Amino acid sequence: MSGHHPTSELEHPVARWLDSRLPIISAMKAQFIDFPTPKNLNYFWTFGGILMLMLVVQIISGVVLAMHYTPHVDRAFESVEMIMRDVNYGWLIRYIHANGASMFFVAVYIHLARGLYYGSYKAPREVLWGIGVIILILMMAIAFMGYVLPWGQMSFWGATVITNLFSAIPLVGAPIVEWLWGGFAVGNPTLNRFFSLHYLLPFVLAGLVFLHVWALHVPGNNNPTGVPVKTPKDAIPFHPYYTVKDGFAIVCFIIFFAFWVFYAPNYLGHADNYIPANPLVTPAHIVPEWYLLPFYAILRAIPSKLGGVIAMFAALIVLFFLPWLDTSRVRSGAFRPMFKVFFWIFVAACIGLGYLGAQPAEGIYIVFARILTIYYFAHFLVVLPLLGIFETPRPLPNSISEAVLKGQGGSATVPAGAASAPEKRG
């Protein structure tokens, strides 16, 4: 990360000695304590910190579970039950990990929606946004592989259906499916592959998160107005103002998380996954976890198998091009009246796709899924480019401080003296 405070500013002699040889302390101080942050960030900006917490929770709980899990088709289901019953606090660790995946996606979808609404993908944050999209795709892959590991009915048949999709790709499809399976059907080699990747890829994800934070600290944070920091009065140090604010939000999120762990630990799972996998019995309705349902609905909305696969992946890939598809010069949706309407229609369409993904692929459900799929892509490819041409935004404030004083996208009153934060961006 760029820049660090001089070693001479450190008070403890041991810290000065270490920092003169490895300037990690001063770099952390510059990037995570003194880092100048817009003073009008609202609570939607706390979900970045929540996501980092959830990543740590998932990695730690996952490592502990891996110590007791047996990746074999004859033992996997039994080993999960053994963890629940015989391992000290195994039930708690498993419920934390299973529900933690859902909480991870709750936070990442809110984080993504905030970025879409406030234009956090626009220049100079294109690389930051692109890394975030890669993180989202990798999260989905990790979550899918984790869903297979209990080796219940939905695990087995979900793996069978989803991996079979790659067979629709011309020329290379069949070899990809055989590699994923480790043979000619979903079986023990498949489970071993998924277990290995599910265990290792979260550490790759952690590396991408580091790059994501690094890319954030180059241009600095976006803010609800979309107006950049222009004077020292527009920014405050990250600590203690946002560490306290983020800490409060994290505590509230942990309480929400704990409700699911202790009072509804199995509610977000599928009942069929508490039945051992049986290749001879097909479940009445095969569905992925709730956080993948919108993309599953898009997949099934297309009559062609290959077309459905292309549409499903295109629904994620289109996010990469969002910085160039949105032609408006105004960053924040708070000052774009027409954009607000279409944004909430888009959110409703995504929720609708999630509902339809959980329904049978028949009748009126398919019709509505096709309508919402069309709107999903139209929002990025038609609506956003045209809004930049025809929309008349509201006047922007001259500075963040002016917006805070007028209540336009401001969050809270800034304590006296906080305005003396340095103007220099990381």
From TrEMBL:
Membrane topology per the entry is: Multi-pass membrane protein
Q: Which residues form the Cytochrome b/b6 C-terminal region profile domain?
A: 228-398
Q: Which residues form the Cytochrome b/b6 N-terminal region profile domain?
A: 14-225
Gene3D superfamilies named among the record's database cross-references = Cytochrome Bc1 Complex, Chain C
- Gene Ontology biological process terms, A to Z: respiratory electron transport chain
Oligomeric form and interacting partners: The main subunits of complex b-c1 are: cytochrome b, cytochrome c1 and the Rieske protein.
* Protein name stated in the entry: Cytochrome b
Q: Which organism is it from?
A: Lutibaculum baratangense AMV1
